[in-house]
Amino acid sequence: MSVEASTSMSADITTRVEVARRESGMPTPLVGMLLFIASEVMFFGGLFAAYFNARAAFVGEWGPPAPAPELEILPLALPLTVILLTSSLTMQLGVWAIRRGNQGAMRFWTAITLLLGISFVAGQLYDYTTLGFGISDGVFGTVFYTLTGFHGAHVFGGTVGLTILLARAIQGQFSARNHVAVEAISIYWHFVDVVWIALFTTLYFLR
Amino acid sequence: MATTTLEPRAETYRSSWVIDWLTTVDHKKIGVLYIVNSFLFFFAAGILALVIRSELAVPGLQFLDERTYNQAFTMHGTIMIFLFIVPVLSGFANYVVPLQLGAPDMAFPRINALSFWLLPLGGLLIFSGYLFGGAAAEGWTGYAPLSGGTYAAGVGTDLWLIGLTLVGTASILGAVNIIATVFKMRAPGMTLMRMPIFCWTVLVTAVLILLATPVLTAGLIALFIDRNYGGSFFDPTTGGQPILWQHIFWFFGHPEVYIVILPAMGVVSEILPVFSRKPLFGYRAFVFATIAIGLLSFSVWAHHMFTTGVVFLPFFAFMTALIAVPTGVKMFNWMATLWRGSISLTTPMLFALGFVTMFLIGGITGVMLSAPAVDFHLQDTYFVVGHLHYVFFGGSVFGVFAATYFWFPKITGRRLNERLGKVHFWIHFIGFNLAFFPMHPLGITGMPRRVSDYSPDAGWTLWNMASTAGAFMIAISVLPFLINVIATFINGERVGDDPWEANTLEWATSSPPPPYNFDKLPPIRSERPVFDLRHKHDVEHLSAEERP
Predict the structure, then answer these.
(1) Contact criterion met (CB below 8 Å) for B283 and B527
(2) A205 to chain B, closest Cα gap in Å
(3) What is the pLDDT of residues B46-58, one digit of tens each?
(4) CB contact under 8 A, A42 and B215
(5) Cis peptide leading into residue B59 (ω within 30°)
(6) pLDDT at residue B421 tops 70
């Protein structure tokens, strides 16, 4: 029965599958990136929950374990924050440039963003050597290094993305019409920036 | 044939089918890889179940010591949940969802291949603990401090953590892919409210995976840091809290229950209408019930922690009982679909009906456990083991077999033998109840879960014997299934493109479908486009207003 049924069906099929992808709305890679970032929000949410849980239950002075000095925003943490915030701006300048089709300006701003990102990671690694406590020095050390470490790893991941972006930009692969990778990486970069703002506020001010 | 193969065929320079399968980015081949890989892990974890049940058949330690017993139930639970039920349903989602949406493939085919290949890697890492001094042994829930460096010193738990992180990452990437596919790849005319129910349940499942699994990943990494780098997340001696692990684990773990059951509900909601010759009763109610279950699933995690004394009992008890409402709505959807239908008891239909009845029992015991007073009595007893197996096995696994019998003709072009299928179903159904029903009286009379031995004076021997006999019956029932699959694959009945006279778009293309799924699509004006196409002539004499 089924063979006959489907034979008679074939003549009736009318809609051609020419455009199965929906061209309207947000480009699919951006949808994918936003969904991925949603999962990242939950990942950092889990780590932040661990931080606040430890903070709420902690008995005694919350902060770096003695004899390590208190966390200070100077000379390093605040400048690194400024560097990362600036890099979000330069990233966006690159996006605006390529939306206008200005490949040269986009390359310039992407390179600056990459340099700022690398500076942040390098500065943070240097900062680790000066803090005077480690990941195994009590629960504060554990949450501090886990949170900042995973954030740093995400910045590093972003610099890898930026490097690929820059290499493709030098080959002239982006234009005003075709630059979805730039948009996707920029969203990720802004997200990493926002995580740092939350982290910086939590670790240095909300104590 | 509804469609012909694409011309010119997107054929390739490849000659070896091995290379072809290893490097494929076709959602159908990846779906088959998922399903085959999952069944291999199913058989491995099933053997562990037989080991556990053999040990428990009579009092005394016959085959294992406590240590190997702990490893056996830990690996059984971990592998069954993370490497069988979740991925096998992902496999069907991978195969079926793009076809049901009228799409040529998933939104990100290469990420799709990646999320599959992380699975066997993660699974083998988890199992490889056996090669390095013993696998993880603190239960699939990995409670701290049992899973900490003090009580689980071996490398098995580290391999378990790394393996689960990989499997979780695979799930997250798969969820991104499914959601993007649903929102960006639907065929013209396929509005959200015309999507097949299976796509809806898979969509909500993907959202749960996307939002719950990363929290588990954070917990797994925290535990790894505690064990290997001297961290203090879960170590009370240095300012940490073991209870934090339970919060993190169950914030993931309870949505996980719905990750496991929702796609199976979707499968059943595809099958019941086809073999009742009626549309699904209350499509919209079903969609909203699915969304409601998804939302509620994030507010009930602490019902696993009633006896810890640190959670607000009235809130979590109320929210947990509340989930019975949308679930009950679905029960009525299914019953009303069957009501006065023209029912044919094919094998997929039998498994779907098995799902509805067995899941109902698991759901009712779930509502019982949502009451703190009852939960305090039954926490960590065999009652909970019985409950979760009625949901996972009586629910999800029945759904998996229903899906296998239902879509096998689409995947291979050949229908599984009905007689062997019914033999499989009945041995499976009776064995299942024999294995898991006795766990309820065992739990009520106080038998704790995760023990390798019990007193001969406890009065538990008979029930345990029955349960072990049931477990072996389930194992035997797999034989007709395997014989059926192999024999059908080699020399089964060829049944054409739409053997069940079904409703959704996967039946509008050839069996098996061509590489890019469709050359042409039927018009999509309802959630049953293939039904509409088949009955097009029945409404031609009606005016536009009179048409349904």
Answers:
(1) yes
(2) 21
(3) 999 999 999 999 9
(4) yes
(5) no
(6) yes
CB atoms within 10 A of CB B265: 30
Q: Are B257 and B387 in contact (CB under 8 A)?
A: no
* Shortest Cα–Cα distance, A3 to chain B (Å): 6
Return d(Cα B143, Cα B141) in angstroms, integer.
6
Q: Model-level pTM?
A: 0.93
* B150 or B108, which is more confident: B108
Is A57 in contact with B241 (Cβ distance < 8 A)?
yes
| Residue B172 near residue A39 (C-beta atoms within 8 A) | yes
List chain A residues with CB under 8 Å of B414.
none
Residue A173 neighbours by CB distance under 10 Å? 14
Two tokens, residue B166 = 């990989």
Of B3, B186, B218, nearest to A47 by CB-CB distance is: B218
Interface of A with B in 144-203 (CB under 8 A): 146, 150
- What percentage of chain B's residues is helix, strand, coil (to nearest 5)? 70, 0, 30
Domain coordinates of chain A in residue numbers? Answer: 34-55+68-204
Out of A10, A16, A45, the one facing B215 most closely (by C-beta) is: A45
Both tokens of B139, joined, read 């239960």
- Nearest partner of B264 among B321, B174, B334, judged by Cα: B334
Q: How much is the pLDDT for B389? A: 97
- Partner-chain residue, chosen from A7, A39, A44, that has the shortest CB–CB distance to B210: A39
Amino acid in position B259: I
> Crossing angle of helices B347-370/B382-391, nearest 10°?
140
Token pair recorded at residue B302:
């602490």
Contact B239 A140 (CB under 8 A): yes
**Measured distance CA(B344)–CA(B422) in Å, rounded:** 13
- Tokens representing residue B339 in the block: 């009501």
Greatest C-alpha distance within chain B: 80
Domain of residue B89, CATH code: 1.20.210.10
Summarize pLDDT for A106-115 with one digit per residue, the tens: 999 999 999 9
Task: Fill in the amino acid letter for A138.
Answer: G
Q: Cβ contact (<8 Å) for B244 and A50?
A: yes
Q: List C-alpha distances in Å: B308 to B242, B302, B322.
A: 11, 9, 22
How many folded domains does chain B comprise?
Answer: 1
Q: Quick check: A42 and B219 CB within 8 A?
A: no
CB contact under 8 A, A142 and B186: no
3-class state of residue B494 by DSSP: strand
Q: Report the alpha-carbon distance of residue B318 to residue B313 in Å, rounded.
A: 8
- CB interface of B with A, residues 491-520, below 8 Å: 495-499, 501, 508, 518-520
Q: Is residue B431 part of a domain?
A: yes
> Could you tell me if residue B8 is inside a domain?
no
Q: What is the pLDDT of residues B247-280, one digit of tens each?
A: 999 999 999 999 999 999 999 999 999 999 999 9
Q: Tell me whether residues A49 and B524 touch, CB distance under 8 A.
A: no
Report the distance separating Cα B99 and Cα B105, nearest Å.
8
> Which pLDDT belongs to residue B544?
67
B206-216 pLDDT tens trace: 999 999 999 99
Nearest to B214 among A13, A40, A141 (CB): A40
Angle B202-B206-A50 from CA coordinates, rounded to 5°: 150
Whether residue B5 lies inside any domain: the answer is no
Selecting from B184, B211, B519 the residue whose C-beta is nearest the C-beta of A42 gives B211
Using CB atoms within 10 A of its CB, is residue A85 exposed (0-12), middle (13-18) or buried (19+)? middle
CATH C-level class of A34-55+68-204: mainly alpha
Average pLDDT of B190-215?
A: 97
Predicted pLDDT at B530: 93
Q: How far is CA A165 from the centre of its chain?
A: 15
Cβ within 8 Å, pair A6-B104: no
